[in-house]
Structures are given as structure tokens and as C-alpha cells.
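INFO worker-7 received task bundle
INFO bundle size: 2
INFO processing item 0
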Amino acid sequence: MKGLTEKQRNILDFIEDFMEVNMMAPTVYEIAEHFGIKTSTVFAHVRSLQKKNYLTRSSKARSISLKHPHRKNRRPAGLRCVPLFNSPEEAGSSKGKDTEIYYDSAVLKNAGDLRKLFAVKIGSEMGDLGMLDGDIAILKRAPETLRNGDIVLVKIGGVPQMRSCHEIEPGIMEFISGDREKIVLHSDGQRFPVEGVVVGLQRNL
């Protein structure tokens, strides 16, 4: 990538990574958010990349297209992979980071940024929550909102556990485990200690 500044190379790499994972181009706002810069700065870099013949872009949303992709997609068509952890406890550590699982990206088309997904193997204690021993739950990290009935990975006493969450009243959530144990947590104006929310499930048949 001759003739590019370091920032332009980083933006080009981010665009290609984003397109490979999400199967669509990032918006200018997503690029700006990732690098912590103003959208006007991103527009300037994108225009420079257009002039240098590295990409094209129209006025439509997600219209960025790479003219000379320098990587080949090594994943089967329609499939994406996410980090797989052997248990909820491992999901809170660096263990399992080199293990991946493939999933059908079409199933999770409404999951948002697919780079925030990870997977956890389920044990026998989750039957009451609709998950069986050996199932693999796919979660979205750091969800912005929680809904009644969401199954989440939440830290209880510093230990990650899978629980079903229910809002008792604004700012107060009840987290129920597979054995029906209940824990009530107050947000106190802060985010609940939720590591991720389940957005998909692969059943071990």
C-alpha cells in the first residue's frame, strides 16, 4: 500500500476487516467511532483513498467498496466464526481465545456488529432456561439494553454465570439461574455487570 499514510492504511485495514466479518461496508460514523476521530476527518481520509484508487464511495449508506482487496476470505461462504469458550467462567478470561466456531451469519443478521459476538459451551445446569448440556450459546458482548426474559452472562460475586434477567422495576433487575436461584441487582445509575446477551443457540444433536 504505497503512498498511504499510517492512518490511511489503518482505515483501509479496518474497512476490509469490517467487510469480511459483517458482509457489508462500514459507515463513516462507524469508522469514526472505532478510531475515536471526527467524521470530517474520516471523510478527508476516504476522499484521499478514493483519489489514490484504493476504494470507491457514493452518497448512499454503506457504499464503500475496495478496488484492490489484498486478503482472501478463508471462511466458507455464508459462514462466520466467533471465539468459543468452554464455559461461562472461561468467557471472562483469555482462555479459549484461539478456539473458534462457525455459525450461519444469516441467522444472526439482526445482531448488529458481528465483531462483538462470542460463543460459550453450556453445561447441564441450564435446562430450565431452554439450553441443554452441550449446546453452544452465541452472545453479543456489552449489550446496550436488556429486555425481560433475556438470557445473559452476568458476573455474580465476580464469577460469570448464565442467568435469565427480569426487570422488577426501573433500575432493579432480577437474575435467575437454571436452578431457580434469584439474585437482585441495582444499577445505581451504572450498567449492570452483564458480559453479554444470548442472540443465538446451536443445539448439539
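INFO item 0 finished
INFO processing item 1
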Amino acid sequence: METPKNPHSIDYRIREGLSRLATVLRADEWERAKSLGLNPTQLSILTLLEGRPLGLGVKEIAAQLGVSQPSATDSINALEKKGHVEKHASLADARAVNVHLGQSGLEILQRKAGTDLIGQAIGTLDDDSQQELLVTLIGMIRGLQERDAIPVQRMCTSCRYFDPFAHPKGDQPYHCHFVNAAFGRRDLRVDCRDHVEADPTFRAATWEAFQAG
């Protein structure tokens, strides 16, 4: 078959690539969840709650995972019956209930199970390529959250403690004021438990400085 002279746009081809990766990622998640006696949504809920000592409400869990509240509720109830999560009154509102990770849920997350095909694919990239990919993904996630397509993620670039170029010389240009330490691109986080969301103006200024660097 002859190669078309006018292939699909680069946007289309990037979507194709992401779709292929998403297929493998879903397969990885299904395999791991199945081996742990869970379904992927239940495993995602446990993963989401890890590192959140105050727990999350059902609405927040649904928003973070991109599922309906009824679907989130069904999965939470199933996890509660298995003893993997617990429900407690919210410290912010005694009328509300937050879902917390239980000890057995934490033990589930600590087990190594299933396949890691995506991890193997990432491992084929050299260190510079991995860092470039991480920064690219952070940029895409940032674009989605600024359009309110997803909740603000606990990334360095959306945190009030992040200083994008406090140390312009060397390979550790960034600074985290929470731990008072310099770090580089390979240590940028997508989900940090010490994250404190910055206001939109600060986030915009931080992102502009981050890109300029």
C-alpha cells in the first residue's frame, strides 16, 4: 500500500500514540487490580487516598477519577465491606463524611502484582528523554486543569512552595520551600502529599517562569 502524501495532522497522530499507550496502561491496571481481588476503579480509589491523611469526600473522589458519583459510591462501599477503606466525619464539616484508606487498603497497595508493560516501555527511554516526557506530561495536565477539565493536581508547578528558578546555574534549578531544598527536572512531582495549592495568579506566574527556563 502506498504511503499517503498528506498524512493526518500531528495532533491526530499524537492522539493515536496516546491511545495506544492508554490501551496498554488500562491492561496493566486491569491485571494488577484483578490479581489483588479488586477492579480498576477500586484500585484507583485506594491509590488516590494513599497520602491523604484527612481523606476525601465522595464528590472529590469522583472528580479526581473522572467517574460518576454513583459509580464512586458503589466502589467505595465495596472497599468498605472488604475493610480497605473507612468512613469518618469530616473535620471541616461534621455533617459530611470523608473516606480514608484503611490498614488493609495500605497493605494492598504495598503488594507487587500484575504486569508493568508501561514501566518497561518507559525504561527503554534514556534519562534525558524520560525527563522531557515528564515535563511534557506536566504541561498537558496543567493545560487541562487550567481549563477546569480536571481538578488542580498536586504538582510542583501548582504549589505555593515551588520556586521555578531559584538556582539558575547547575542541574537543580528549582527550589521547594516546604523542605528547603533544590531539585531538578527528574524530581518534579505530579502528585505530592505536601502540596499546597497556589492561587491562580501565582500559578500563572510560576508556570511562565518555569517555561522560560
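INFO item 1 finished
INFO post-check item 1: The first helix runs from residue 10 to 35.
INFO post-check item 1: The chain has two domains: 10-110, 125-212.
INFO worker-7 idle
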